[in-house]
Amino acid sequence: MDFLMVFLKLAEWAVYQLLANSCYRAAMKVKNHGFFLLRNHPPQKSPHHPLPLFPSFTTCCFNKDQHQTIVCDIQNTLLLNSKSFFPYFMLVAFEGGSILRAFILLLSYPLLLVLDHELGLRLMIFITFCGLKLKDMENAGRAVLPKFYLENMNLQVHEFLVSARRFETSVMIFTRVPRVMVEGFCKEYLSVDDVIGTELHSVGKYFSGFVSSSGVLVKHKAVKEWFGNEKKPDIGVGSCGFHDQLFISQCKEAYVVTKEDGKKNPRTIMPREKYPKPLVFHDGRLAFFPTPLATLCMFLWFPLGILLAVFRLCVGIYLPYHVARILGGLTGVNIMIEGCDYSWEKKNKRNGVLFVCTHRTLLDPVFLTMTIGKPLTAVTYSLSKMSEMISPIKTVRLTRDRKQDGETMHKLLSEGDLVVCPEGTTCREPYLLRFSSLFAELTDEIVPVAMNTHVTMFYGTTASGLKCLDPIFFLMNPRPTYHVKVLGKLAKELTCGGGGKSSHDVANYIQKKLAGALGFECTNLTRRDKYLMLAGNQGIVEDHSKSKKCPST
After folding, report:
1. What is the mean pLDDT of residues 197-209?
2. How far apart are CA 410 and CA 473, in angstroms?
3. How do residues 521-547 score in pLDDT, each as one tens digit?
4. N or C: which terminus of the chain carries fewer CB neighbours within 10 A?
C-alpha cells in the first residue's frame, strides 16, 4: 500500500510538471487537490468574496400583491447530483454526433478532472460540438435530453417554481452550460420566461466547437448586465457552491438548495405522475444515464454485444422455436410468458386467428411466434430490407390504403394466423397510441396480446436513426426482457360481426384492455404525432424499390 501511495504521488508530480508551463490553473489544481483525489483539502474561499450563509429555498415566501422575478440555474439546482454536466454532453455526442465522438469525449474525462471548471467546459464543448450540425443538436434537445432531465429533476425545487407560478412570478434560468442544450426543455416543460447561457459559435449549418466572443457565461455578471445596476431580481436560488453564492447574492432575497435537498432520495426524485407534461415519446439509443463509469462499461461491452446479437439472430433464424427459446435464455434473453395457451388450437376452417399486439419493437411478432410455438404472418407498414431478410417469420408490407390493406389482410387470414400492431408505430413509454380500427372489420377471431420490453443499455427503436439496426441494438443488451401476456379471445358479443359493434368501439375496447393488462395509459396520439415531435417530419421515407413514399414504423 505504501508503495502504491508513493507511485501515485510521483505520478501527480509528473502531471504537475507537464501542465506547469502550459496551463497554470490546471497545474495548481493538481498541486492543491491531487490528480488522483487523494487529498481532502477544504474548498478555497476567496478573501474578496466571503461566502454568506443563505437560508434554504423551502423557507421562501412569495408576495401575492407584487410581481416578482426568480433567477436560478439548472445545474446543481433544478437537477439532482449535477456537479458535472458530462452525462448530458455524452448524450449529445452519442445521439447527435456519433459513437466515435462519444468515445473521444470519454477518453478526455481524465483531463477534465485536472482542468478547472471553465477549461473543462470549453473542452467538452469542443469535442461535443465541433462539426456537429445545428439540426442534430435541435433534434437531440427536443427528443433525447428531456427524458434524462425529467428523471434527474429535483422534485422539491420544481414544486417551488410551480408555487411561484401561481403568483404570476417570472422565472429565468442563468447557466454556464450551452444555452442550446437546455433552452428547449426549460421553455417547453418548465415554462420559464428566459434562458441565458453560454452561446456557441457556428459556421453555416455547423457548430465550430468554440464559444462565442462573449465567452463562457459568468452568472453573477450576466445578472448585472441583464437587470442593470439599479434593478435586482427579487429571488435567487442556487447551490452552496462559491460561484452560485456569488450569483444569488445579486438578488434581493437569496436561497440555497442544500446538499441534503440536492441528493437523490424519495423526497427529491420526481415520479412520472408529477412530470410537468407527459413524456410519451423520446428518441435515442442509450437506455441508461451515461455517467463516465457507465459509459466506460458500455464501450467495453460493445464488441461482445455485437457478437452476442449476431449469435442470437442466427439462433432465432435457423433453429426451431423451442430450441431458439432455450438457447436464447442461456445467452441472457429473458422471455416472460403469461396468459392463455394457443399453441394447441387448430386453425378455424375458414380463417386463422388475428393476434392484436401492442407495439414495442420490430421483434414483437417474432417473440409472439416463439411464445405460442406456431408460425405466424406479420403485417407491417414499413420494414427495412435488412429486417425483412433476417426475419424468421413471413412479413407482408401494407400501404395505408384502407381498402387495399383490408383485402391483403383478409387473404392472409384465410391462409393462417396473423399478427397486427394497430398502433402503427412503436412507443417506449407506458402509453398506448390510438389503435387503427381496420383489423376489427376483418374477423371475429381476435386475440389481444399485451407485450412489453425492458432493456438496460440500448433501445431497440429509433425515429431518426438507422431503423435497420433496431433488432441488432435490442439484442446487444446484456439481458433483454420480453413480457408476453396472451389474453383471452375476444367474446363474440364484443366484435363487429357477432355483436354488431362498430370497428372503432372494438379497437377502443381492446386498447383499454391491453392498457389495463400492462398498467399503461391510453392516448389519442398517432404515428404522425410521434414523428413530428421526434424527427420533425411525418414519418415518410422514400421507398426506392417502388418509387413512392412509404411511412416508417
Report:
1. 95
2. 33
3. 999 999 889 988 887 665 554 444 443
4. N
What CA–CA distances, in Å, run from 435 to 44, 422, 522?
61, 5, 10
Which is nearest to 316 in space by CA: 353, 377, 371, 380? 371
Length of the chain in terms of residues written:
553
With residues binned 3-state (H G I as helix, E B as strand, rest as coil), the percentages for the chain, rounded to 5, are: 45, 15, 40
Query: Residue 391 — φ and ψ, nearest 5°?
Result: -70, 130
Give the whole-angstrom CA distance, residue 466 versus residue 458: 14
CA 23 to CA 114: how far, in whole Å? 10
Cα 84 from Cα 117, distance rounded (Å): 9
> In 3D, which of 398, 400, 394, 397 has the Cα closest to residue 415?
394
Record the pTM: 0.85
Q: Which residue has the cell 426506392?
A: 544
- Using DSSP, state whether 95 is helix, strand or coil: helix
User: For residue 52, what are the contacts with CB-CB under 8 A and spacing of at least 6?
Assistant: 245, 249, 254
Question: CA-to-CA distance for 505 and 138, rounded, in angstroms?
Answer: 39
Task: Count each helix (H run) and each strand (E run) in the chain, helices first.
Answer: 21, 18
Average pLDDT over the chain reads 85
Q: How remote is the C-alpha of 62 from its chain's centroid?
A: 35
- Three cell numbers, residue 288: 441508461
Burial tier of 344 (Cβ tally within 10 Å: 0-12, 13-18, 19+): exposed
Strands 194-198 and 170-178: parallel
**418-420 vs 394-397, strand pairing mode:** unpaired
**What percent of the chain clears pLDDT 70, i.e. is strictly above it?**
84
163 near 212, Cβ under 8 Å?
A: no
pLDDT value for 502:
93
AA identity, residue 476: M
186 φ, ψ to 5°?
Answer: -60, -40
